[in-house]
Amino acid sequence: MSGPSTYIPKSGLEKWIDQRLPLPRLMHDTMQTFPTPRNLNIWYTFGGILTFCLGVQIITGIVLAMHYVANAGLAFDSVEKIMRDVNYGWLIRYIHANGASMFFLAVYIHMFRGLYYGSYKAPRELIWILGVLIYLLMMATAFFGYVLPWGQMSFWGATVITNLFSAIPVIGQHIATWLWGDFAVGDATLNRFFSLHYLLPFIIAAVVGLHIWALHVPGNNNPLGIDVKSPQDTLPFHPYYTVKDAFYLCLYVILFAAFVFYSPDFFGNPDNYQPANPLVTPPDIVPEWYLLPYYAMLRSVPNKLLGVLVMGLALVTLVLLPWLDTSRVRSLRFRPVMKQFFWVFAVDCVLLGYCGSQSVEAVAFGIPLVIVARLGTVYYLAYFWVLMPIIGLIETPKKLPASIAQSVLGDKAVAAAE
Ligand code: HEM
């Protein structure tokens, strides 16, 4: 934890606990007095929102698991039973299903925020890398979860994704068989996916613990991307940021509730209301929206193995990001050239997502979408491997403010306080 502790036990009991297990001290130093830059904006409330989302997924998931049956012959009906016969089962299920989308929406905002303000740069590389690990675990968890209702899309999604491993030369087919626990996706696969789907959120929670621990060593970055220099640059976390985080969390919950109560199947796929049928392939096999950009990259390459490698590279690139960015300046607010490419990158990700949602033969405005996806994939990789290292070296950044306090309060207020 950065800086000495300011905790003073208020009662004999607190003192007794503090000497044996300084948990109240930890909470006090991280959640109350923690010096937090005074200029954090709305985009900094998403870490808290994500913690809330993880909690919601774990609680609703545990309740669902009390009624769900992980058996290929019974899974689909057990989910229908949850929807119809279990008290408030429909609510718990819709919160869990839409919760996954709300979780990913928040994580994408959180990641793009980090990308924009250069939060992955030294000394916060490990915060970022632990974040990427969380993101990968989230994708795996969501994939396993989507298989559990054992609808058409569950079954065929599982078949397509596990079959990707068979592209690996020589041992690929053996790996696929090993993953299935059988010679095709079936009951054994469903069982192990359920087991992993239950396990992974707890691993995510542990990695989130490390993520936040790593955050508390250098402290938060901020929209200016400059370091904290004096106590004037910061505010205590409580009440300033507890209140701000709570306010934006309420807004997020309203959006979440709007989906759950007014359009609970908005993110879903109607094919998943059909029980899994290994003999009937759906016309288009589409993953959930949050995996679509990677799905587009995978399909944009005509060779299966190369497609898998390109998709893998797109993910590995995120881990290497702190070393691909050569700029001395963190925040894109002060990087006029890179900022333009950042927005093109954001649009590129949405475009890739759109391509992933359409059939492989789809054409828009006379252009085959597979070509659009191919160009989108090239831009995605070029953004990190070409633009970031080169522009970081040649761009002239704008002048940085003298301090956070000066930027927020102005010269006079800072001078008066000194
Ligand atoms: C379960 C998922 C996650 C949770 C609960 C979580 C939680 C948090 C919290 C509470 C903060 C501090 C508040 C804030 O800056 O918003 C934070 C900061 C941060 N997170 Fe995450 N996070 C998650 C996923 C991720 C992912 C996927 C990435 C990136 C790949 C990431 C990268 C970062 C970075 C770089 C910071 C420091 C930001 C700064 O100081 O500017 N996080 N996270």
Describe this structure in words.
The chain has 418 residues and is mainly α. The protein has two domains: 240 residues, Up-down Bundle (Cytochrome Bc1 Complex, Chain C); 133 residues, Helix Hairpins, CATH 1.10.287. Helices cover 65% and strands 2% of the residues. The strands form two sheets. A two-stranded antiparallel sheet has the order 1-2. Strands 3-4 form a two-stranded antiparallel ribbon. A hairpin with a 2-residue loop joins strand 3 and strand 4. The longest helix has 30 residues. The model has no long low-confidence stretch (mean pLDDT 97).
* Overall number of structural domains: 2
Computed over alpha carbons, the radius of gyration is 24 Å
Describe the main β-sheet briefly: 2 strands, antiparallel
Task: Assign the CATH class of the largest domain.
Answer: Mainly Alpha
The overall pLDDT average reads 97
Tally of helical runs: 15
**The CATH topology of the largest domain, please?**
Cytochrome Bc1 Complex, Chain C
The kinds of small molecule bound in this structure are: protoporphyrin IX containing FE
Strand order, main sheet: write it out.
Answer: 1-2
Q: Percent helix among the residues?
A: 55-70%
* Strand element count: 4
CATH superfamily of the largest domain: Cytochrome Bc1 Complex, Chain C
H and E string? HHEHHHHHHHEHHHHEEHH
Kindly report how far apart the N and C termini lie: 27 Å
